[in-house]
């Protein structure tokens, strides 16, 4: 990427666009009553995805941006598991019908912190409330430092077939700076256990832009992870937002790589992944040829949700747990963020929705354009406008921003077709932001664009 573009755009604070409107624009004007109505209105045959959030870890990683808390005791986890089962049953009653499910994702926190037998019970509760298809992808996020063979056996028995292993960096200096000491041997052992149990879909999560991280150390981490032959590797840029994630204040800001350094790390990692035969997917994923995500990207069927890029075609995502965000055709909903408030609502037999966003026609139009940009780096604005019964004239504000990006060489525009310059793909969030009607009124600071 040209140095002038890095200088101009890299420090811009922009959303990652895992939804549109983005979560900071959700409000209490959308609540549990709306969610109950939206669930009841969902047609019986609607293809659905499920997300389950488990907000507990055994220790806090200082880079973490997730909604999680540290517990050394099992009692809070056991109690929370009961609340999850109660919420699943409650949502099932509002739906009435067992919707078909093609994707299930367990996130956190550390969802494998649950006791094996409790996890099996949770999966049984999901299957009772939903028609989880035999070929469904059931994925879970794993901290290799805390996983044991008993839990691996439970995952396999529950039908889990994809695991995402957090690695972030294998550089000891970086690990000390982020409070996450994890050896390559720990990760290697867990990969072996999973594959031996029949869980062969292996993802590895890495981060660039961490304190003390260099291009050389980032590449060394990638090289070692490639020896494990994962199906996918996700490479996220570290988002330093200590105003919102107070534990990030333990990271010395002076040790963080800046725009050009971050970009060099991202480009070096990307080059290594492509050289190893992986296909780049969007801004932060790489997949082997033939992997479902690579196939979806090739066919223009890639999507984006709160877990990042996905091959999941469902347009309904029902989410369970504290802070979990779901999407129905009518809009987004989010549960109470704290375990205490979430548990109080569910324990009282009430839906735990605290805020959300009902979608209007303009949201749907702009959201589709943003998703296609984030997934394909190309969009035919006129074609999408026609599908929504609109004209490009209704997006005059956005197209003015697009013209400025074209003048800077970030994108190429032919009438209403926008294509991001291959060398500027790292700035795709700046392109997507052109269509964000809410950004100017954003109530919070986002992560850097690069």
Question: Secondary-structure map with pairings?
Answer:
Elements: H1 3-9, E1 13-14, H2 32-40, E2 48-54, E3 56-57, E4 69-70, H3 75-95, E5 100-108, H4 116-129, E6 131-142, H5 149-158, E7 162-168, H6 172-178, H7 184-196, E8 201-208, H8 215-226, E9 232-237, H9 259-275, E10 278-281, E11 285-288, H10 292-298, E12 303-305, E13 308-310, E14 316-320, E15 325-328, E16 331-335, H11 339-347, E17 353-358, H12 361-376, E18 378-380, H13 381-387, H14 396-408, E19 411-414, E20 417-420, H15 428-433, E21 447-448
Parallel strand pairs: 2-5, 2-14, 3-4, 5-6, 6-7, 7-8, 8-9
Antiparallel strand pairs: 1-21, 9-11, 10-11, 12-13, 15-16, 16-17, 18-20, 19-20
Helix pairs in contact: 3-4, 3-11, 4-5, 8-9
Sum up the overall morphology in one term.
globular
CATH top level of the largest domain is Alpha Beta
Task: Give the N-to-C terminal Cα separation.
Answer: 11 Å
Low-confidence stretches: none
Count every helix, treating DSSP H or I runs of 4 or more residues as helices.
Answer: 15
Number of strands: 21
Helix content: 25-40%
State the major sheet.
Answer: 9 strands, mixed
The structural domain count equals 2
Counting helices, strands and paired strands, the structural category is alpha/beta
Mean pLDDT: 94
Features:
450 residues; nine-stranded mixed beta sheet; TIM Barrel; 37% helix; single chain; alpha/beta; three-stranded antiparallel beta sheet; 2 domains; Arc Repressor Mutant, subunit A
Structure description:
By secondary structure, the chain is α/β, with parallel strands linked by helices. It folds into 2 domains: 18-358, TIM Barrel, CATH 3.20.20; 361-439, Arc Repressor Mutant, subunit A (Orthogonal Bundle). It is 37% helix and 23% strand. The chain contains 15 helices and 21 strands. It has helices spanning 3-9, 32-40, 75-95, 116-129, 149-158, 172-178, 184-196, 215-226, 259-275, 292-298, 339-347, 361-376, 381-387, 396-408, 428-433, and strands at 13-14, 48-54, 56-57, 69-70, 100-108, 131-142, 162-168, 201-208, 232-237, 278-281, 285-288, 303-305, 308-310, 316-320, 325-328, 331-335, 353-358, 378-380, 411-414, 417-420, 447-448. The protein has a 9-stranded mixed sheet, with helices on both faces. Strands 15-16-17 form a 3-stranded antiparallel sheet, with helices on one face. It has a 3-stranded antiparallel sheet with strand order 18-20-19. Helix 4 runs parallel beside helix 5.
């Amino acid at each position: 990427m040209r140095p002038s573009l890095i200088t101009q755009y890299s420090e811009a604070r922009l959303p990652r666009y895992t939804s549109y409107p983005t979560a900071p624009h959700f409000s209490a004007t959308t609540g549990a009553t709306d969610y109950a109505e939206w669930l009841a209105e969902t047609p019986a045959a609607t293809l659905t995805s499920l997300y389950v959030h488990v907000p507990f870890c055994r220790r806090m990683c200082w880079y973490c941006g997730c909604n999680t808390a540290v517990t050394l005791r099992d009692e809070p986890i056991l109690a929370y598991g009961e609340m999850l089962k109660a919420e699943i049953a409650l949502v099932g009653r509002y739906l009435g019908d067992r919707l078909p499910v093609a994707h299930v994702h367990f996130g956190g926190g550390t969802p494998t912190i649950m006791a094996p037998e409790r996890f099996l019970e949770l999966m049984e509760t999901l299957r009772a409330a939903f028609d989880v298809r035999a070929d469904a992808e059931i994925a879970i996020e794993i901290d290799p430092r805390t996983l044991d063979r008993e839990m691996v056996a439970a995952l396999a028995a529950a039908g889990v077939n994809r695991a995402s292993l957090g690695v972030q960096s294998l550089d000891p200096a970086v690990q000390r700076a982020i409070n996450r000491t994890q050896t390559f041997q720990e990760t290697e052992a867990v990969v072996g256990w999973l594959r031996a149990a029949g869980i062969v879909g292996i993802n590895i999560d890495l981060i660039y832009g961490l304190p003390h991280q260099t291009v050389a150390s980032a590449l060394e981490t990638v090289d070692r992870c490639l020896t494990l032959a994962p199906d996918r590797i996700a490479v996220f840029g570290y988002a330093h937002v200590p105003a919102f994630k107070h534990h990030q204040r333990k990271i010395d800001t002076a040790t963080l790589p800046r725009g050009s350094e971050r970009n060099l790390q991202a480009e070096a990692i990307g080059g290594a992944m492509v050289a190893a035969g992986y296909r780049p997917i969007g801004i932060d994923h790489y997949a082997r040829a033939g992997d479902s995500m690579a196939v979806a990207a090739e066919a223009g069927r890639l999507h984006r949700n709160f877990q990042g890029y996905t091959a999941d075609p469902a347009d309904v995502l029902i989410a369970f747990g504290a802070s979990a965000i779901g999407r129905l055709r009518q809009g987004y909903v989010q549960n109470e963020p704290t375990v205490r408030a979430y548990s109080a609502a569910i324990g009282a037999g009430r839906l735990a929705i605290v805020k959300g966003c009902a979608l209007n026609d303009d949201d749907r139009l702009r959201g589709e354009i943003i998703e296609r940009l984030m997934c394909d780096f190309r969009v035919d604005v006129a074609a999408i406008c026609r599908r929504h019964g609109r004209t490009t004239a209704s997006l005059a504000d956005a197209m003015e921003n697009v013209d400025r990006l074209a003048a800077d060489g970030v994108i190429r525009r032919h009438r209403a077709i926008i294509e991001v310059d291959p060398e500027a793909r790292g700035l795709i969030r700046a392109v997507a932001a052109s269509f964000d009607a809410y950004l100017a009124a954003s109530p919070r600071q986002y992560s850097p664009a690069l």
